[in-house]
Each structure stands twice: as C-alpha cells, then as structure tokens.
C-alpha cells in the first residue's frame, strides 16, 4: 500500500483533531533525602486518582493520562495529575530522573508492587529473568491513536484492504515500522540521563 499517496490524496481529512495522545510517566517515590520510600502507596490516594498506578516496585509510580487531542492538552493533563499526586504523597517526592536513586545493596530488598496475585507473579517472573535493579529504571511512554473518523476516511479511499480491521492493523504496523527506522535518533536525544547514583550503601 502506498501510504504517502493515500495520505496526500486525503489531506483534507487530517487536522489537529485527528490524533489522540496519551502519556504514561514512571517515577520512584523517594524521601526528602533522595532515598527510596519505605512506605506502601496509599490505597486512598490510588482510589482518588484513577490515573495513578504502580509499576514494577511498590515505590515505582506510573501516572497515566486519558487520551487527549493534541500535545498541549496531554501535557496539561500530565501536569495536573503530577501536581495531584505530589500533593497526595507529601512529604515524599517523585524522583525526577529515569535512572533510579540509590538502591538497596541487596536487590531482594526492592519491594515488588503490592497488587493482585497474577500481577505479583508476573513481576516476580520479571525479577527472576532480569533482576530487580533493571526493573527500577523509569521512563515516559507515549501512546498514539488515530481517530475513528480519519481511519475510516482513509479506509474508504483505498482499495487494497477489504476489511476495516485489517486496514487499521496495517496502518498501525506502518507507523511502528517508521518509529523503528528513527528510534536510534529518539534514543540518542531522549534516552540519556545526566548522572546516576552509586548503588552501594
């Protein structure tokens, strides 16, 4: 399928409302001295903020925005959720770097998130396979989706696919392939951390 030609011929369908973006920000809960928090994440805070989750460890937060139209809207949503979480965590803080703060010398002292049985079993499997330290790296995930209106418009304008689901899958696969083509640049620009803390002590 010639995606470039399909998009060019249907440029009128593409506008700022055609793409939805969601963000998932991970970060470690720490004390004011930069040590991993030793507390359990408050169930009250989790129930109050539906965008707040735990990732691998009990100390590892994940802040998830609902899908938003446009980058400014999703950044506002993430900023608001971050502010609400920080207020609820006080006096604890969210570690700002992707590299974790100083971790316990014995990695078995890194607490797996207190979730349901299946979720804990999955995290225990990750810990056995990769080690707990590696799971403590945090990042930012960007989820992108094309609105149904644009997807259906593009589908109606082509003749290669006879099923909408097949067309949609091919479209997202093409987007993923383009991301992989340029991932070296994205990793270079965004994947560096200015420093990391010694892991002993």
What do these coordinates show?
- The protein is α+β, with helices and mostly antiparallel strands and 201 residues long.
- The protein has helices at residues 3-9, 43-48, 71-89, 117-130, 132-135, 148-156, 164-190, and strands at 19-30, 52-54, 60-64, 68-69, 93-94, 140-146.
- It has seven helices and six strands.
- Strands 1, 2, 3, 4, 5 and 6 form a six-stranded antiparallel β-sheet that branches.
- A hairpin with a 5-residue loop joins strand 2 (52-54) and strand 3 (60-64).
- The mean pLDDT is 90.
The average pLDDT score comes to 90
Percent helix among the residues?
40-55%
Please give the count of helices: 7
- Rounded to the nearest angstrom, the radius of gyration is 21 Å
End-to-end span in angstroms?
A: 57 Å
Give a brief rundown of this model.
By secondary structure, the protein is an alpha+beta fold. It has 7 helices and 6 strands, in the order αβαβββαβααβαα.
Keywords:
201 residues; alpha+beta; 6-stranded antiparallel beta sheet; elongated
Please describe the topology of this protein.
Layout: H1 3-9, E1 19-30, H2 43-48, E2 52-54, E3 60-64, E4 68-69, H3 71-89, E5 93-94, H4 117-130, H5 132-135, E6 140-146, H6 148-156, H7 164-190
Antiparallel strand pairs: 1-3, 1-4, 1-5, 1-6, 2-3
